Amino acid sequence: MEAKISEQLRQLIQSTNASDYVDVIIELHHDQEDDAVEPQTRDQRIAHLKETFSRKIIPLQEKIQGIGGEVTGQAWINQTLRVRVSADKISLLRDHDEVARLDVPHSLERDIAR
Questions:
Q1: Which residues contact 61 (CB under 8 A, 6 or more apart)?
Q2: Average pLDDT of the chain to the nearest whole number
Q3: In contact, 60 and 99? CB cutoff 8 Å
Q4: If you write DSSP's letter for every residue of 76-106 in order, what string do you get?
Q5: DSSP per position, 25-75
Q6: What global pTM score does this model have?
Q7: Is 6 helix (H, G, I), strand (E, B) or coil?
Q8: pLDDT grade, residue 111 (50/70/90)?
Q9: CB 69: neighbour CB atoms within 10 A?
Q10: pLDDT digits (tens, 9 = 90+) for 76-106
Q11: What's the rounded Cα separation, in Å, for the pair 51 and 15?
Q12: What whole-number percentage of the chain has pLDDT above 90?
């Protein structure tokens, strides 16, 4: 289970007071069943993936709220949630069935072709 927590997040937890809130990215497992469904158009495929993601995150959102955290963002396209939760509650998220990995937010940098 410890492998679900990135090294960067582990270091952040160790350097933070247990009751301090931290931002965490939750990567969810990708469902193979989603790949098996073949909607006829691109728009139908996107709608299906969005709907599946919305249903999948409901129990996790309830758990996050139940431990005093909040969902601050979500991305269906890469199956992630951004949450704010106290450092001492992160292990409770790690044990959730849908969670593949927990990490710190990373900045995106523009790839400039030369």
A1: 71, 81
A2: 89
A3: yes
A4: TTTTEEEEEEEGGGHHHHHTSTTEEEEE---
A5: EEEEPPPHHHHH---SSHHHHHHHHHHHHHHHHHHHHHHHHHTT-EEEEEE
A6: 0.85
A7: coil
A8: confident
A9: 21
A10: 999 999 999 999 999 999 888 899 999 999 8
A11: 38
A12: 68
Please report, as a single letter, which amino acid is at residue 111. Answer: D
Residue with tokens 């007071």: 17
Task: Give the C-alpha separation, 72 to 66, whole Å.
Answer: 15
What are the structure tokens assigned to 78, written together? 């890469």
> What is the C-alpha separation between 4 and 80, in angstroms, rounded?
14
Backbone phi and psi for residue 111, each to the nearest 5 degrees, phi listed first = -90, 110
Q: Which domains does the chain have, with CATH numbers?
A: 2-99 (3.30.70)
User: 77: exposed, middle or buried (C-beta count within 10 Å: 0-12, 13-18, 19+)?
Assistant: exposed
Indicate the Cα dihedral angle 29, 4, 27, 68, nearest 10°: 120
Tell me, what DSSP letter sits at residue 5?
A: B
Which single residue is written with the structure tokens 């990567």? 27
